[in-house]
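Thanks for the sequence, V.! I ran Methyltransferase domain-containing protein right away. Repeating your input here for the record:
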Amino acid sequence: MSLDSADPNIVVYTAIFADYDVLIDPVVAESSVDYVCFTDDETLTSDVWEIRNVTPMTDSALSNRRIKILAHEYLEEYDISVYIDGNIQILERVEPLVEDYLSTADFALYKHPKRTSVFEEAKACIEKNKAEEGPVREQLKYYRDAGFPDDRDLSENRILFRHHQEPEIKELMWSWWREVSERASRDQLSLMFVLWKHDLEHNQIPHSVRDSPQFAIHPHRPDGKLGLIWPYWMSVRTDPDPGLLKKAVFHFGRALSVLKREGFLALLSKSASLLVRTLATRVKEIGDQLGILGPDQIYSDEYYAKRRQDPFRSESHEIADALVEQFQPGSVIDFGCAIGTYLERFEELGVAIHGVEGNSAAFRHAVVPNDRLEQHDLRQPYEPDDYYDLVLSVEVAEHIPERYARTFVNTLAKSGDVVVLTAAPPGQGGTHHVNEKPPEYWTRLFNDHGMEYDRQTTDELKEEIVVDSLYHVPKNIMVFKKTDR
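Predicted structure:
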């Protein structure tokens, strides 16, 4: 089914039973999308979610899965649904994802972050006591006997995108529900089998929910006494408002009063510790997610003035020399170019240059004419005005919050066939390093855009570039190339 049909109506929904999760409001709530929460909690209220009370089955987990799977039974007034687990928070707009993921298929799923097959998932369920071994082994035997090849990439079923009113999707969902209700209730064990049985192709999103900048995964509500204060903790953990400290003290004050009233004095110190840890985490996350530390707030005029001097300037020229020798580019674009010391040398060598920088202070200290530079926040999408022989981004990636990393990589990948990137690894440390990740992380993101890591060229540059003050550049350098070059 195409999204070109007139006014497709979209619902995002979740199902929470037996206080398993705390309902989380989206950071971005779209007027074109409805939000529905099914629950057995008659006291639950929300300014964003429409609360629909339902009588649960005896098994609360199965109550969730029935609503999760049978969207067409519970949401007849909608054409398109996006199911999310109760511990998922929406950080960005969902409608663009629907338009993208359901444009060529009626069902879209995220890739599992760790496992690739149903049999791997079954083994993990048994080892982690998430399902009884006997029924799981019986289920696997049934699938083998049926001829199931188990050759589809395993999905992560925290989020489901569906045209749930399509007849083949309804039929698929009924089959899936029968598997979940009559065999092991772990829905990831049965979905790939059901898709195979119905010979239905779906859109496999090439990354996991955890790697998606549009969503955040939070802990489930714990059992026992700590669960009493969970709503207060989640109020702080998920609140995007920068006025965090006042709210945090308020919510945790209420939490501590509950514990004291209930006689759980032993949990008071643990709650205080939780407050401190949460504040430290959320202050950083809020700055990262909402851009409190924008490009103009990371580096000062003094920093850029220093970059005009040696050894930084001369070593930048040495690095540019090595890149020209390696790639022989006719044109280069430098994302996060700062004052343009790399571009300065490229232009001296006859290369056409363009620089993109977010911090306005850099322009006041630029060593290339400002008409060669463009101001743009690299957390936001960017459309290049040309296609360049070489795309460069040095000491920038670690400053891009993880929720914007995919946008940043998309910008680089669409700008040319060859990307030279440096990215600080975990533990390096530095000013506003909010996203230190290993090379494998960036490789996965570039793979999603048809680019592969070029180990040979990377190793050659690591040997060719010998600098002192900018030693992190050769240490962290990576080269990615389009696979269809």
